Amino acid sequence: MGNNEIPLHEAPERFFDSAPWNEYLSLLGNREVALPELGQPEPGIIGHYRQELERQPWMHTPSTQRALRVAKLGEALVTRFRTQLSKGDTVATGLSPLAIDRVTIAGERWEDLWPDFVNDKAKGVTLEFTRVRLSEPTDHLTEAGALLDRCIKWMEQRSHEGESRRKVLQGEALAVFGQDLTTRVFDTGYKAVFSRPRGRPRNNPTQPK
After folding, report:
1. What is the Cα–Cα distance from 18 to 182, expressed in whole angstroms?
2. The model's pTM
3. What's the confidence (pLDDT) of residue 136?
4. Which of 21, 54, 112, 162 has its CA 20 to 30 Å from the CA of residue 128?
5. First to last CA, the chain
6. Across residues 151-171, what is the average pLDDT?
7. CB atoms closer than 10 angstroms to residue 23
8. CA distance 158 to 45
């Protein structure tokens, strides 16, 4: 496996937006429950029933509200992920019975493929890829690395100015760097600047004279 490649089952932590993914995890309890749910496309009849239920909020109970939220979050997460793959923003490779060597899965294929995260597979009606791995295009890695460096330097400056609140900084960072600043890049930069080992004070204590 290349330095930048990861197996499909690690995709959520690297390629999903962290906020909806964390909410999805919290609603389902843990990752072991969440991944199999994401790997199962919703049957059409269930989707139709869900849409009808959404139009009748007076029928909602806490249980149905939770189920609807889980379904909507899961659909949004996988749809966005497949769009990344279709557009080439994320590159997938896999093993196919039609080829001897590992092959790149063309973006157009993802219209008919669904990610099976638990088993590292991409499955369609007539085609299946196994041992799926993911990476970012080289040019994206270079651009993301440069943006991360700029974001870290900017956050270090804001830290010196006394600002460390995550939500405040994320809003400011979007204004400074624009929509190219993904949640993943911001999270990485924030962790690099503000995370400290447990038990270590954020500032060095004043030394006695």
Report:
1. 10
2. 0.60
3. 84
4. 21
5. 55
6. 91
7. 14
8. 51
Average pLDDT over residues 71-88: 91
Using CA atoms, how far residue 151 sits from 91, 143, 173, in Å, is 25, 12, 8
Q: What is the pLDDT of residue 207?
A: 44
CA–CA distances in Å: residue 114 to residues 122, 151, 196? 5, 34, 39
For residue 10, the one-letter residue type is E
Q: What is the residue extent of each domain of the chain?
A: 6-135, 138-194
What residues contact 190, with CB distance under 8 A and at least 6 apart? 155, 166, 169, 170
Handedness of CA 30, 35, 40, 45 (dihedral sign): positive
Integer angstrom CA distances of residue 19 from 24, 66, 101, 167: 9, 17, 37, 12
Q: Which whole-number Å values give the CA distances from 6 to 1, 43, 93, 172, in the listed order?
A: 8, 29, 10, 31
Whole-number average pLDDT of the chain: 81
Q: Which two tokens stand for residue 192?
A: 């690099």
Around 147, how many Cα atoms within 13 Å sit in the side-chain half-sphere? 21
DSSP sequence for 130-147: EEEEEE--HHHHHHHHHH
Q: What is the DSSP string of 146-172?
A: HHHHHHHHHHHHHHHTT---HHHHHHH
